[in-house]
Amino acid sequence: MPVDVEGYRDYVSARLEPLRRTAYLLCGDWHTADDLVSAALVKLLRHWSRVSVMDNPDAYVRRTLLRVWLDERRRPWRREAAWAEVPDRPLAAGATEGAADRLTILALLAELPPRRRAVLVLRYFCDLSVEETAQELGCTPGTVKSQSARGIEAMRARLAPTPDRVEEVRNDG
Amino acid sequence: MDELYDQLRAAVAQAPPTRIDVDDLILADRRRRQHRAWALSGSGVAVAVIALTSTLVAGPYRDSREPTAHTGPSLCAQLNASAGGSVPPFERYGSAPPFPSEQPAAAVVRLTVALRTALSVNLPRGLTVDSGVPGCPLPQLSYEGTVRRYLYRVPLKLSRGGDHGDLVVSVEPALGAVPACRLMLDSTEDCSTDQLPDGTQMALNTEVDPAAGTSRRSVMVGRPDGTMVGVDLAQRSASVDELLLSMDQLVAIGRWPGLTLYP
């Protein structure tokens, strides 16, 4: 059965950047993100004749991407090393503030267990509902809710100002 | 949590250019499908050859009570295209370069017929050609597809008087231009390239190394239709004049009309 290559090319052109960004939030590295997306797109191409007629091909691609990422993480040479230093406090405002925030959020995401990280990315970056997230991760909505709550709680705790910081502010005042 | 929503978007706002090339992915997948199709075809041919060989060697089953006249089996494969026509096993993708759509079993038959004709027309009189296969002197190409190559090839033994040589003819898809001449390191090699008005590209090479006792003359013909034909003659201890085939004869074989993968 001939593959509708043009349709595939159009679809990938439209979805490539969102997929790369999703992959980046999952793995924290643009090169790895490209590798993950490439692997997912190859799998998509193999099944494109079937996926292209689905109601929601995006869900299939996202599921594939998640599986590729989880599989990659299981490989010994891909085992994730913890970030060397997670900033304990927000850096001083300035030109690097945006970069610092970006690194902070990525570092915090990297500290989370993989599936909890996936829940946050799907819920708050891909804008999926609890039910859709549960479907993509193959778990129950209750699990998504609990994982989401724990993930947010962990990140909020790390983002909250430390007592030292509070003390400094008081002294200044 | 709007804060997280915003921060995730900010974290990916400055994405570097991607390394992903969709066309490369498509091409790689096309190759994978072709290799799989070739592997399946090759397996089918191998099974058929084994079955045919077993039948020829052991002979068909006969009732021992039936009177028969024994006829010696021929080990030469029959040159009959398989029935049922050829179903293209390979998928074609848009603007990607064409790959042969002919089944290897059918292509072997067609190319072998063309090669035998080319040899009978272009080889000089008095030159003996042998396939090297006992009981089957006629040349016959075989499909030698691997994961890296799609290739039809035949090695032949040439002889005239006391001179002997090995001739190898190969037919494969051209994956690029004919190879350019390498930098000459010594005077034993004479290499040139040529382009004909019809678009045919040729790399001509003659190498005589008295020290090593090897002589070689070869031509790679890149046909305009995308077929690459190689004709390679090797002899031991022969001067340029003693080589069994001239360059013109090699070129004539390489440019023979039937030796194409895209009939």
Quickly list its features:
heterodimer, A: 173 residues, mainly alpha, 0% strand, disordered C terminus, B: 263 residues, alpha+beta, 8-stranded antiparallel sheet, 4 helices, 8 strands, 28% helix, 23% strand, elongated
Description:
The complex is a heterodimer of chains A (173) and B (263). Chain A has 173 residues and is mostly helical. In chain A, 72% of the residues lie in helices and 0% in strands. The longest helix of chain A has 23 residues, at 5-27. In chain B, helix 3 (104-122) runs antiparallel to helix 4 (247-254). By secondary structure, chain B is of the alpha+beta class. Chain B has helices at 2-11, 22-58, 104-122, 247-254; strands spanning 128-130, 142-143, 152-160, 163-173, 189-195, 201-209, 214-222, 227-236. Chain B is elongated, with a radius of gyration of 25 Å. In chain B, strands 1, 2, 3, 4, 5, 6, 7 and 8 form an eight-stranded antiparallel sheet that branches. Classes of the chains: A mainly alpha (173), B alpha+beta (263).
Number of helices of chain A: 9
**Number of extended strands of chain A:** 0
Determine the most extensive contact between two protein chains: A-B, 34 and 26 residues
Q: What is the H-and-E element order of chain A? A: HHHHHHHHH
Distance between the termini of chain B: 65 Å
- The helix/strand series of chain B, from N terminus to C terminus, equals HHHEEEEEEEEH
Structural class of chain A, please? mainly alpha
Mean pLDDT of chain A, to the nearest integer, reads 79
| Rg of chain A computed from alpha carbons, rounded to a whole number of angstroms | 19 Å
The helix content of chain A, as a percent range, equals over 70%
The number of helical segments of chain B is 4
User: Given the C-alpha coordinates, what overall shape of chain B results?
Assistant: elongated
